[in-house]
Specification:
Blueprint: H1 3-11, H2 15-26, H3 30-39, E1 47-53, H4 59-73, E2 79-84, H5 92-101, E3 111-116, H6 125-138, E4 143-149, H7 153-161, E5 164-169, H8 175-181, E6 190-193, H9 201-215, E7 229-232, H10 241-258, H11 260-286, H12 293-302, H13 308-316
Parallel strand pairs: 1-4, 1-5, 2-3, 2-4, 5-6, 6-7
Helix pairs in contact: 1-2, 1-3, 2-3, 2-6, 4-10, 6-7
Bound molecules: guanosine-5'-diphosphate (GDP) and magnesium ion.
Amino acid sequence: VTKTSLTEQLRSGNRLALARILTQVENDTPTGQLALDELFPFTGKAHLVGITGSPGTGKSSLANQLARLLRQKKDQAPIAILAVDPTSPFSGGALLGDRIRMRDLSGDPGIFIRSMASRGALGGLARTTSALVQVLDAAGFDWILIETVGAGQSEVEVARLAHTTVVVEAPGLGDDIQAIKAGILEIADILVVNKADLAGVENTERALRASLEMAHDENNGNKPVWKPILLRTEATRGIGVDAVLDAILAHRKFLESSGDWKTRERSRLQAELDSLIVQSLYRQWQNSPDAHQYQDLLQKVWAHELSPTHAASQVTGEI
Ligand SMILES: Nc1nc2c(ncn2[C@@H]2O[C@H](COP(=O)(O)OP(=O)(O)O)[C@@H](O)[C@H]2O)c(=O)[nH]1
Ligand SMILES: [Mg+2]
């Protein structure tokens, strides 16, 4: 099987080819890189929905229910769930738990579920996730749900990949404080208090409402702004999930009418291009005869004899 025909098979809906390409891309192999290049023209169509929050809040349960509902509501549109597990491969338990909980969905050929087992070999969780999402996008999934644990900066970056970010909280975890720390609330388009059947929902909701108001206080002039929607769910029984889906659809409308849908993608692609250019130029310089000055300059910067700006301009010759 040649590389080209593998991407062609993926494009024609072959799930085995899709799984193989995802593995190649996740491991950053030359085959994976080639596939990404070949598939790029077919990307940029899917609606990416990030579902983030602390472990155990009910993200997988919610993703599961959302996928089901989306299938019904959107004329059986194909849906992918990418479960990003940022923990080490040794904590296989949680991953297995998710796999089992999501198993009932795999009977529907229109829902494709994939766990990301390893931390990005490509250099960063966000980059690997982005690459896998591109493959799923090119494979024709109109909706891609990305489940990620909202525990740190890299997860915030993953959430930024998404068009719509759903932050999931649950009563009694002291999560609101953690979420604020991680900057998770600032990126929430939709905030879900799950486990509405448990005691303490009102308290969690009140705390979140207060922090939301703080996070979204700034006045953005005339630009239309999206006000995050706060909702309650009981994901295990599917209660309130239709309202979450409605909020996602409303957010999509907002992105399209405000022009943000295009702007977000463009600025993400520009940032990717710029960072690749910078990396490539840096590598070229490292392999050039000029690179020998680097250690000298670094010593001078450390000794505070030379400012980093001056040191850099000596390297590049730019004044
Ligand atoms: N009581 C209650 N339990 C829930 C609810 N949603 C999820 N759970 C349970 O909470 C646990 C963690 O759910 P899971 O979806 O795996 O959370 P994740 O770690 O955020 O993906 C599981 O045992 C679920 O059955 C809910 O609405 N109410
Ligand atoms: Mg989960």
